[in-house]
Design brief:
- One of its GO terms (molecular function) is kinase activity.
- It comes from Leifsonia shinshuensis.
- There is one protein chain.
- By secondary structure, this protein is an alpha/beta fold.
- Helices cover 36% and strands 19% of the residues.
- The protein has a single domain, classed as Rossmann fold (3-Layer(aba) Sandwich).
- It has six helices and seven strands, in the order H-E-H-E-H-H-E-E-E-E-H-H-E.
- The strands form two sheets. A five-stranded parallel beta sheet has the order 2-5-1-6-7. A two-stranded antiparallel sheet has the order 3-4.
- Strand 3 and strand 4 form a beta hairpin.
């Protein structure tokens, strides 16, 4: 029988993650999960909790979403209607960034972030600064069993998979897509057909994670 998922307590998870970086070396912890699982919320909360606990900025958040291919590139590839699928990211670029974050702790390493307001990545909008001991890496495909994604787990001190019931993920996704301008009908179709197809690839990767975290309830801020 599989172990029960760990409660999504960012303070307990932050302490766990900081112990991985206790030897003075920078540690990367990966937070994976399907669209709508709550992995972004959890990853950000863990970073905030780690910085609060340490009393200084020792942790940074680094999302995979900054490596979305630009809309113009997706149009040229004929993949714009599948935006978010594994082949619509610059996976090799993301791996190279993680390698740099580990290898270059003595100067800032800049990274792109995805701006949902414009629907495009923005270059250099995040920074991993010297003194950062913990980097919480977040994304759908961190544990995907194909190249270049298979190069990511060896870079991680631990990997956490956020497991959330499908009906709750769908509710969150429809709400998200509606807030970002889709009609309720279009939001449901995208959540079912595009996000759903991605989830079918992502969900089996939970088996290779170090830890499964329960994403079905709001992140515990206590």
């Amino acid at each position: 029988m599989a172990p029960s998922p760990t409660h999504a307590d960012p303070h307990a998870l932050a302490r766990r993650a900081l112990r991985l970086a206790a030897d003075g070396h920078r540690a990367l912890v990966g937070v994976a999960g399907s669209p709508g699982s709550g992995k972004t919320t959890l990853a950000r909360a863990v970073v905030d909790a780690a910085n609060d606990w340490a009393g200084e900025p020792v942790a940074a958040y680094l999302p995979m979403d900054g490596f979305h291919l630009a809309d113009a590139t997706l149009e040229a590839l004929g993949r714009h209607d599948r935006k978010g699928a594994i082949d619509t990211f610059d996976g090799w670029g993301f791996v190279a960034l993680l390698e740099r974050v580990l290898a270059e702790p003595d100067h800032p390493v800049y990274a792109p972030a995805f701006d949902r307001a414009v629907g495009e990545p923005i270059a250099g909008s995040l920074a991993v600064l010297p003194g950062t001991r913990l980097v919480v890496v977040e994304g759908n495909y961190l544990l995907a069993p194909s190249d270049p994604w298979t190069r990511i787990p060896p870079l991680l001190a631990e990997s956490w998979f956020v497991a959330t019931p499908e009906d709750e993920r769908m509710r969150r996704l429809v709400d998200r897509h509606t807030r970002h301008g889709r009609t309720p009908e279009a939001a449901l179709a995208w959540a079912r057909d595009v996000d759903g197809a991605n989830a079918r690839l992502i969900e089996p990767t939970a088996a290779s994670a170090t830890l499964t975290v329960d994403g079905g309830l709001p992140v515990d801020a206590a």
